[in-house]
Amino acid sequence: MKTLHLTFGTNAVISQLRKKNKNLKLIQLYPVSKDESDILLALSAGETPFHGGISFKILSGTFLKKANYYFVFSYLTLNSDEQKIFVPLFEHSNNSNFILARSLNHNFNYLLLSAWPSQNAFLAWSNAGPLLFNQKYLKDSKYQAHTAVYQSKTNSF
Q: What is the pTM of this model?
């Protein structure tokens, strides 16, 4: 089982974690918004390398390692009926700019991680209607949804 592990922190803390774990292929992404922290990712088939953080089982897709790309993390809570609609859209995809993952702790929490050459490319895609992003789902207060944009740099990988 491929797993995506995430932890968050200041640039200094995340950089220090990377130095301590040079044997692991960790990925550091930088927030576009000042309201977010740096994120450190680990892709593995085993245990999380982090003492804290969250982990997701990768259901489909592969991670795109490109410098100066934008990575959009869309965290969604989906009930059983919504999962039947949403999950098949990505379930059998090996597209390199999407990863669909489900929380290891809560089977109704999902993460859609997408990679884009620009923020405008993501906005054009999300406004074209292929998913739930431009529908009432993300605007309805009864649902939990959060989207954050990060950027890779030449030292991210």
A: 0.87
Backbone angles phi, psi at 92, to 5 degrees: -105, 20
**What are the structural domains, with CATH classification, of the chain?**
3-151 (3.30.70.100)
Enter the tokens of residue 59: 């259901």
DSSP string, the chain: --EEEEEEE-HHHHHHHHHHTTTS-EEEEEESSTTS-EEEEEEESS--SSSS-EEEEEEEE-----TT-EEEEEEEE--HHHHHHHGGGTTT---TTEEEEEESS-TTEEEEEEEESSHHHHHHHHHT-SSSTTSGGGG-TTS-EEEEEEE--TT--
Mean pLDDT of 60-72: 92
